[in-house]
Amino acid sequence: MRHAGCMKYIIGFIALCALLAGSFALYSFTVYRAPSVQETRTVMIERGTGARGILEQLHREGVLPAPWKIMLPVAMGGEYRAFKAGEYAFAEGLSPHQVVSSIARGDVVVHAVTVPEGWTVAQVREALLAEPLLTGDVPSNIAEGSLFPDTMHFQRGDTRASIISRMQAKQREVLQEAWENRAKGLPVASAQEALILASIVEEETGVDEERRRVAAVYANRLRMGMPLQADPTVAYGIAPGGMKRMLTRADLKRDTPYNTYTRAGLPPGPICNPGKDSIEAALNPLASDELFFVATGNGGHWFARTVQEHNANVAKYRAALRAQKSTP
């Protein structure tokens, strides 16, 4: 009888434990699926933080309930094995299950820095140094023209050097593809020379429809041995970081390795970081016999085949400038 009574207690205890375990499991899974984020929060999970440490951190920062409440479904789901470090933004109303899944997928916050076409290395360096979410210094030996202008996405803590490396790899890829698909008979002997020409095209016009036409003018001049006489090269030779004033006649006569008024042929290197459209234009210029162009005063250019046509266009440009100055 004593044995039978003891068995009843054991069975009762086991049943009670099973009931408690079942109740806890039900409670835990209910909490796991219920909203836990009371307001949008951004959390930075550092590299090397273990799964338990991540759950505790998220609890401290008001994203998750106490780890013991959800440890069962987290363990059973196995997503904790794939937790990834990084910056996360958790919106109001998310459940622990959604939070855990987000960390397992690595849905980190992505930031961006934009480098426009035509920026110099100096301008890119300044922009990257001004971005507080990036780390480290900018390499000091970046070749002008080697960076692909683009909107670069990154995670908090990425290095500035990694951004530069990605931009350089993309520029090499774009230049190589354009070089392989270049037109025949170009007056450039290498992809580097094409990059130099593209950088001049980039600085001369911001009108997409004009790029191949501008490239044709310079290609024609190179074939004929005429000086390029490109104002942007003069400005770069005087102030590689960017000229803060208008060019003067004295500037055009000031000899530097980049002055295409005083020196024949292409300058020794690119004068900016050209974009894909300018690179492709330099390697596939429009078929034309034009040798001159001058600004219209409203963003575009007038093109000409002869000096006489060009002088007439210059007169129109000057008249447009006078009209603008006289307008109240």
Verbal overview:
The chain has twelve helices and six strands. It is 49% helix and 8% strand. It has helices at 2-33, 51-60, 67-77, 96-105, 121-129, 160-180, 191-204, 211-224, 231-238, 249-253, 276-283, 307-326; strands spanning 41-45, 86-90, 111-114, 151-154, 292-295, 301-304. Strand 5 (292-295) and strand 6 form a beta hairpin. It is elongated and about 115 Å long. It has a two-stranded antiparallel sheet. A two-stranded antiparallel ribbon has the order 3-4. It folds into three domains: 29-105, Endolytic murein transglycosylase (Dna Ligase, domain 1), CATH 3.30.1490; 112-169, no CATH class; 185-326, no CATH class. The longest helix has 32 residues, at 2-33.
| Largest sheet strand order | 1-2
Mean pLDDT across all residues, rounded?
91
The secondary structure category is: mainly alpha
The domain count comes to 3
Multimer state: single chain
What order do the helices and strands follow? Answer: HEHHEHEHEHHHHHHEEH
Ends apart, CA distance between termini: 114 Å
Helix content: 40-55%
The helix count comes to 12
Residue windows where pLDDT falls under 50 for at least 5 positions = none
Short note summarizing the structure:
With 328 residues, the chain is mostly helical.
Task: Note the main attributes of this structure.
mainly alpha, Dna Ligase, domain 1, 6 strands, two-stranded antiparallel sheet, 3 domains, 12 helices, 328 residues
